[in-house]
Amino acid sequence: MMRALVVFVFSQFSSLSVTEAQMKGIALSTHTCPVRNEVEIEDILENVYGVYEGELGHYDTVIVDHAKNLCGRYHAYRHMLHTTWLCHDACRHYADVLSPTQRRLLLVVALMHDANHTGRAGDGNDDVNITLAQRFFRKHVAPEDKPFLDTIESYICPTKFPYNIGGQDLCLEVQILRDADRANGLDPAWFQMVIMDLGEEMGLGPREMLAGQESFFGFLSFYTEWAQRSWPRAVIDKRIRAVQRRLAIWNRFGGERVAKR
């Protein structure tokens, strides 16, 4: 009987469009959403799985049409989408803790937090990038988010790096945002993103950038249970070993080339 009821409810829901479902206030169970790696960014923008309130298409569109850092090296369109993708997974994890509105605000911030970034990092002037992102958001805020404008802008501030606000002083939404922002370094494509792209923004060559990663990952710890489960210490330690091995390869073959000359 219970199984028949579930099938009936799901069939009634599946006949609705995403917009109709949102208007009726129906939220899909997180169990109907596939694992993170199978979720497309379009699924998130259109809120196919009912994880948050409304949709994010407005913000994706204004970024593509108006942001000046679409094709930057690291702090660009890909990074903002990737951070949003990770935060969406966290929203599912905390579906019983964060309200649909809170989940929406987190995803809006994730998508907008580096809009109009200058493409310069590590120079101690990240205040400029925070201000640019806040101005961009204020200019392009969706009507439904105007009541939360100050909240969203305040969530952008703690993404300033180096951090000047301790993680223990942040609300869960911003802790998630920070964890997702830093977890880019544990992505399979981390070498290009971090060593090459972020390194160029910081004015560092590949060797110098890679040499600093052992220390970064050594001190890396996540605030949230979601991130700790997603990237346990064993995963971080494996990345440290990868850094050490790559440096050893470069040093070995680089030394041979110098000797032959």
Would you write up a description of this structure?
- It comes from Candidatus Andersenbacteria bacterium CG10_big_fil_rev_8_21_14_0_10_54_11.
- This is PDEase domain-containing protein.
- The protein has 261 residues and is mainly α.
- The protein has 14 helices and no strands.
- The protein has helices spanning 2-14, 18-23, 41-45, 57-66, 77-93, 100-112, 126-140, 149-156, 172-182, 190-201, 206-211, 213-219, 225-230, 233-260.
- The longest helix has 28 residues, at 233-260.
- It is globular, with a radius of gyration of 21 Å.
In short:
With 261 residues, the chain is mainly α. The protein is 60% helix and 0% strand.
- Poorly predicted runs: 1-31
Radius of gyration over C-alpha positions, nearest whole angstrom: 21 Å
Number of domains: 1
What's the count of strands? 0
Task: State the CATH architecture.
Answer: Orthogonal Bundle
Organism: Candidatus Andersenbacteria bacterium CG10_big_fil_rev_8_21_14_0_10_54_11
Protein name: PDEase domain-containing protein
Pick out its properties.
261 residues, mainly alpha, Catalytic domain of cyclic nucleotide phosphodiesterase 4b2b, disordered N terminus
